[in-house]
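W.,

You were right to be curious about this one. When I first looked at the sequence I had no strong expectations either way, so I just let the prediction run and decided to look at it fresh. Below is the sequence, 168 residues in total, followed by the output.
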Amino acid sequence: MAKKQKKQQAGAGGTPATVALTAAGADYTVHAYEHDPAHPSYGEEAAQAMGVSPDRVFKTLVAEVDGELTVAVVPVAGTLNLKALATAVSGKRAVMADPVAAERTTGYVRGGISPLGQRKKLRTVLDDSASSHATICVSAGRRGLEVELAPDDLARLTAAVLAPIGRE
């Protein structure tokens, strides 16, 4: 069962994502759950553990658009449309980034990459379906930890472009 914590304080065992949210004064809720390494999908596992619809849980993917690392945040219930991602940032071609490069650049491990508090701030595109929800959940920076916040806050804090980059 997921545990809820309101506004985890910076310096109190927070992740870079929760530290960034606290520093920005954003309203958020942390959801912790027991991660099962054998589960085939980090995002679907998070949705099930929190009892949240998969269309409100978003995964953070790192792609390369014309050679530049770019973050895509899409619902876990769907997939990333690479062509739409490239178009959203005025690029020509997008491919999934090398996982080692994604981990090294963001400072997070695969399955725990958060769009917030990354080691190097990457340009970010948030699927426009996020705006149809009062709150969405994204990784808080480690497997088994999600943060729930308003999509507008996520877009503002990551300087994200909203675009239709997900597909079911």
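Here's what jumped out at me. Residues 1-12 have pLDDT under 50 and may be disordered. And, maybe more interesting for your project: The two ends are 27 Å apart (CA to CA).

Coffee later to discuss?

I.
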